[in-house]
Amino acid sequence: MSRTTSSAPESATVDPRQFKSFAEFYPFYLGEHSNVVCRRLHFIGTSLSLLFLLALFVTGDWWYLLAGLVCGYAFAWVGHFGFEKNRPASFKRPLYSFMGDWMMWRDILLGRIKLS
């Protein structure tokens, strides 16, 4: 499932709202993350967000929730706008994109998606 080429021209014609299920959406989502730097930034941002969520539960300080959201989206958007050169699918499919981020994070941890 490792991808090395950009799919920006193809994705420019695909509306993420057309997908009827997450199973249909996920391959599109992975295509929107074909740049290895973008994937790395997503992985870092999601990992840090998970740490902030853990800090929220340990301390009860709700500022960690805000920090986790900001951190996760900041890393992702730098990846998309700076390296992938596309718009995040979260603008049109926020729930599926959120789910896709965690699936991609899991797939990276399991070695199904390479970061090199």
TrEMBL record:
Record's keyword annotation contains Transmembrane: yes
Pfam families per UniProt: Mpo1-like (PF06127)
Domain of life: Bacteria
Keyword terms, alphabetized: Membrane, Transmembrane, Transmembrane helix
Keyword Membrane: yes
Spans traversing the lipid bilayer: 41-58, 64-83
Descriptive protein name: Mpo1-like protein
Lineage: Bacteria, Pseudomonadati, Pseudomonadota, Betaproteobacteria, Burkholderiales
